[in-house]
């Protein structure tokens, strides 16, 4: 079981960050305070799209390496905003079996969504990473970040991929997440840094931010260019 590091003053609150840059700066400070990035050649890996400005801010404050890990949720049939699981960079799929059973989805419906996800993932790899090889992670402190977690399955896909590459320490660092998702991901990592942990029956990443919008590909690419990742 990993260790949870949170900001207790932000527990169960909404609209606690002005925007993603502020959340990134606060997250970087928390990472520095708990000594996560002190040794072993740390690297921050962003989950696009929302994780890119978070990773950029963390890397700028802490002076650490930064790169991308591209994972994608497997959409719920008829509801593209919701997910029934996620796919990692190598095409490995993690499914929310409890949700699938509750929805009564057929194998055909599931496989259809998996194939859609595979195509989208390939396009996003080409758009954001191009032919650039994935960085070596052996023996390094690896910090995976996003602008927030909902179900946690995309993060689990990223974690599974990274664990195969022998990091010294694996850290998930996000501004906000629901308590049940923290409990889902925490056993799979060494440290889980989450500033705004929230309980309750309803949760939206957007409700942690005063200023929230979905990042377009052009803005993501602009940030990647600033970080010299394209």
Written overview of the protein:
The protein is of the alpha/beta class and 230 residues long. The protein has two domains: 3-70 and 132-226, 3-Layer(aba) Sandwich (Rossmann fold), CATH 3.40.50.2020; 73-128, PRTase-like (Ybab, Chain: A), CATH 3.30.1310.20. 36% of the residues lie in helices and 23% in strands. The protein contains seven helices and nine strands. The protein has helices spanning 20-33, 51-62, 97-103, 107-128, 153-163, 179-185, 217-226; strands spanning 3-6, 43-46, 65-68, 72-76, 79-87, 93-95, 141-145, 169-178, 191-198. A six-stranded parallel sheet has the order 1-9-8-7-2-3, with helices on both faces. Strand 4 and strand 5 form a beta hairpin. Helix 1 (20-33) packs across helix 2. The chain is globular. It starts with a strand and ends with a helix. The relative contact order is 0.22.
In short:
The protein is α/β, with parallel strands linked by helices and 230 residues long. The protein has helices at residues 20-33, 51-62, 97-103, 107-128, 153-163, 179-185, 217-226; strands at residues 3-6, 43-46, 65-68, 72-76, 79-87, 93-95, 141-145, 169-178, 191-198.
